[in-house]
Design a protein that fits this description.
By secondary structure, the chain is α+β, with helices and mostly antiparallel strands. It contains three helices and eight strands, in the order αβαββαβββββ. β2 and β3 form a beta hairpin.
């Protein structure tokens, strides 16, 4: 007997393809519905966290980005630290801020969640404040020690030669040249 040639799209009667196709469509629709439900649940949970703002029961605090500007000498007096370096690293994707502690008591203000550290690009006004892997020093500061903060630098906003305002504690130091 010679093999039978079937045209594309032609189906022999009773091959059962129609029933299987509906099972596949139903299974795909169920999978899409489950993914949408999971995404909706994540959105709902994150939305309620973001809407909580300064609610004392939420554990989150709205950051204060506008702080009084000080010179280098006053920065050391008010925040207890002296900036030693601001440099772009990681092929432009990171900014490394290094500071030396001159007054450990005053430097402890750097732990205030309402006053997170940050960098403001003075040309664009963009605030870079996301720390690499959310890493920040949490212990007591020690006099004479140098500490660092590594900020994510999205789209290489801050570049070598840029002037930035450094936000540390309750003050900001302006016109710091990035290496």
């Amino acid at each position: 007997m010679l093999p039978t040639r079937i045209r594309p799209g032609f189906r022999l009667q009773g091959d059962g393809g129609g029933g299987r196709r509906w099972w596949r469509v139903g299974g795909a629709a169920t999978g899409v519905a489950l993914v949408l439900i999971i995404l909706l649940a994540f959105w709902w949970l994150n939305r309620s966290d973001a809407d909580s703002g300064n609610d004392p029961t939420s554990g989150t605090v709205e950051p204060i980005w506008d702080r009084p500007a000080v010179g280098a000498d006053e920065l050391a007096q008010r925040s207890g630290v002296r900036i030693t370096q601001v440099a772009v690293t990681g092929n432009g994707g990171l900014v490394d801020l290094r500071f030396q502690v001159v007054d450990p008591q005053a430097a402890n203000s750097l732990h205030d969640p309402a006053l997170p550290p940050g960098l403001i690009d003075e040309q664009t006004g963009l605030v870079v404040h996301d720390l690499l892997m959310n890493h920040a020093h949490t212990g007591l500061y020690h006099q004479g020690e140098t500490y660092y903060l590594v900020f994510e630098n999205p789209d290489n906003w801050i570049r070598p030669g840029s002037e930035v305002t450094v936000l540390l504690g309750a003050v900001e130091a302006r016109h710091i040249t990035v290496q």
